[in-house]
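Appendix B. Worked example

We walk through a single record from start to finish. Start with the input: the chain for Nucleotidyltransferase family protein, Streptomyces poriferorum, length 236.
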Amino acid sequence: MHTFPTQAVILAGGQGSRLRPYTDDRPKPMVEIPGTGTPIIGHQLAWLAAEGVTDAVVSCGHLAEVLQEWLDAAVLPLRVTTVVESEPLGRGGGLKYAAARLPDPEQPWYATNGDIWTRFSLREMAAFHAERDATATLALARPRIPWGAVETDAFGHITDFIESPPSPYLINAGVYVFSPAFTGMLPDLGDHERTTFPRLARERRLAGYPLPHGAYWRAIDTAKDLTEAAKELDGQ
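Next comes the structure step. The output line below is what the pipeline stores for this chain.
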């Protein structure tokens, strides 16, 4: 019987420069998905709570006070603590700083980037993580290529046009399951994706969980992503 994580970190400190002007007066996770009346982080907290999470630590940075004011005023489905880096620690350092505020350092935990809007079973991902005895597990997505693709035969004749095909490569979907030992492997300063993750991969302690077929996933990076998310919401 697996013990599913009940604690999570949300990394919500990014500048969101590619989402301007939406991020001129608010951090990226506070940008509202059109048509929902709720910022990205509101959707994330609801998803985490539905997956059994009772405590979340939100790592703030750019315009932190806007996010903290919203959290203070909102009716939240779980307990939320915020942390603000007094100086930039890098992605790995920031993750370690936030993880120090989790209520139980001896238990596994989830983490998610603050600009991800998704729905899939975190419990199934946690079971996958435990079955492989991994130290860290990354959710993997296969996004659609934003351009039309062209297929050719061996002789160079064009045989077909495919609009926005799925990428042949899996990407880091920005959602994670971490074992308790992972926290101590994070750098105090710097990027864990260039240090901790490669080390774990070499030691075969880093697992990749492909998102289930049909699971909704979108990274909100640009104004176009907001428009597309609203269209997909209408289509659901």
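Two observations about the output. Residues 140 and 172 are 5 Å apart (CA to CA). The mean pLDDT is 86.
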